[in-house]
Design goal:
Strand order of the largest sheet: 5-4-9-10-1-2-3-8
Largest sheet: 8 strands, antiparallel
Radius of gyration: 45 Å
Distance between the termini: 98 Å
Order of helices and strands: HHHHHHHEEEEEEEEEE
Strand content: 15-25%
Helix content: 40-55%
Structural class: alpha+beta
Number of strands: 10
């Protein structure tokens, strides 16, 4: 027999399971010296069985330990009670003359039948176990691959939905910027905060105002930017500006509407805003 025939015969599964005879064990050990690849096959069978055992392991009930110890204690207590009872040695009665001359007969004991498993049935059992192990292994592999593929699909779907939302928001911003009816006003940072720049998109016909505050530096902790319109020389609250939310940068944000204005400004206030601006960081006039 060559290595391929030995592997397909099922005897290696019998060897691993301990169902092979002493002669078969000797054969396997000789074959492993002649065909070293059989050692790899035996190791693979042992690993497959170990994985199968772990996969089908059943965790004992939490009450099992207490139940076992309770039975052990009960057995020990019963044994102690028995040991306290004094033993009585029975006294045989004096045999009669007739009984002395009787020849005792030994009851016949039939030998218990011994059953043996034929080599063919061992092979069939080993082959069945081998098929089951191979099937279980393939099921485990494909289940893992399916789980990975399914998780990857869910992640891809979530990423696609996120990108679609970003595309929709970007298109909305682009439509606003391209609208010929809007007046764009650039706000420049003042000396106290030169990087506080922003762009205002003002629709004079409707009074709608949008602000692109994506270039504003993040506000310090406990502080927030506030938008103002300068109307007839006085600042009018235009709403609080959201620069980011949980890491998400906002681009164009809709603010309060103004039918007329001479300029727009941004101030840095405590969170929640202020009735009047305290620290103006950016200003832009309408030309």
């Amino acid at each position: 027999m060559n290595a391929k025939d030995i592997i397909s015969s099922g005897i290696l599964e019998l060897y691993v399971l301990g169902l092979s005879s002493a002669a078969e064990n000797a054969e396997v050990e000789l074959w492993t010296k002649e065909y070293p690849e059989l050692l790899e096959e035996i190791a693979a069978i042992e690993l497959a069985m170990e994985k199968l055992a772990k996969a089908n392991a059943v965790t004992p009930a939490s009450t099992m330990k207490a139940s076992i110890f309770a039975k052990i204690n009960a057995t020990e207590q019963s044994a102690e009670k028995v040991s306290t009872i004094p033993s009585v040695v029975p006294v045989d009665p004096i045999p009669s003359v007739a009984s002395v001359h009787q020849i005792p007969t030994t009851p016949s004991v039939e030998a218990a039948p011994v059953y043996t498993i034929s080599r063919n049935w061992k092979m069939i059992a080993a082959a069945s176990i081998g098929i089951f192990l191979v099937s279980a292994t393939f099921n485990l592999i494909y289940f893992n691959k399916y789980s990975v593929a399914n998780n990857s699909l869910e992640e891809t779907k979530a990423l696609l939905e996120k990108e679609q939302l970003r595309t929709k928001e970007f298109k909305s911003d682009l439509d606003l910027v391209k609208d010929p009816n809007n007046t764009m006003v650039s706000l420049k940072g003042l000396e106290n905060n030169p990087n506080a720049t922003a762009k205002i998109f003002w629709f004079q016909e409707t009074g709608e105002v949008g602000i692109d505050a994506s270039n504003l530096p993040d506000a310090p902790s406990g502080m927030q930017y506030q938008f103002w319109a300068i109307v007839d020389g006085k600042p009018v609250d235009g709403g609080m500006i959201i620069t980011n939310d949980k890491g998400k940068k906002y681009r164009i944000q809709k603010m309060k509407s103004f039918g007329k204005a001479q300029a727009f400004a941004i101030s840095l206030e405590k969170a929640g805003g202020n009735p009047t601006p305290t620290t103006v960081v950016s200003l832009g006039k309408i030309i």
